[in-house]
Amino acid sequence: MDLNAPPDRAACSLLGCLLVREEVILRITEVEAYGGPEDSASHARHGRTARNAVMWGPAGRAYLYFCYGVHWMLNVATGPEGAPSAVLIRGAEVVAGLETVLARRGAARATPGLCTGPGKVAQALGLDRAFNGHDLTTEGGLALRPGPPPATILAGPRLGIAYATPEDQVRPWRFADGASRAVARRKALAPL
Q: If you read the UniProt record, what top EC class would you report for this enzyme, in one word (predicted)?
């Protein structure tokens, strides 16, 4: 995992990594990269605010925000300190703690879509605002650990950014594990 790399490379390096919180372990299967003020899809596009300050580093901190007043979204701050960027965790597979994940998600059984979607990932991990700014590179609370990288990486446009410029809307900064079923809108992705 290379969290100090440019956003797209940092995003690819997170595929296959593990998110660990208590008995729950999720393997990251889908991510989206977001750059600094020059990326019109990024929360950094309007400069530093209290909400997005974590994006300015250091790398490896959790950036959580509440989306649509419904879902928490987990991002990992990346890049050099002072240069804002982050990677949204869009999807994951459950490695351990399935019963806890099912209870948190209100699901009766495991399906490929159980943690497909950023709100579902945060819900499966039981995350809220208290984790914003949390150091994911140290043990305790919520940790990010290396895992086996995918054999094939898929790439395509990011989702849900209609407000961005046309160039940023089509930028292929959504990445996924080509072998995983826990990936949203797979048809919009192609091998990297």
A: hydrolase
- The string of pLDDT tens digits covering residues 53-70 is 898 889 999 999 888 667
Identify whether the C-beta of residue 1 lies closer than 8 Å to the C-beta of residue 13.
yes
Judge contact between 74 and 62, C-beta under 8 A. Answer: yes
What's the one-letter identity of residue 73? M
Mean of per-residue pLDDT scores for the chain: 93
Q: Are 177 and 30 in contact (CB under 8 A)?
A: yes
Return the pLDDT at 46. 85
Q: Is the preceding omega at residue 112 within 30 degrees of 0, hence cis?
A: no
Could you tell me where the beta strands, DSSP code E, fall in 22-178?
Answer: 24-34, 62-67, 71-77, 86-96, 143-145, 153-156, 174-177
* pTM of the predicted model as reported, rounded to 2 decimal places: 0.94
Give the domain ranges of the chain.
Answer: 7-191
Give me the CATH code for the 7-191 domain, please.
3.10.300.10
Q: Report the distance separating Cα 55 and Cα 136, nearest Å.
A: 14
Minimal CA–CA distance to 31: which of 166, 153, 124?
A: 153
Write the single-letter amino acid at 179.
Answer: A
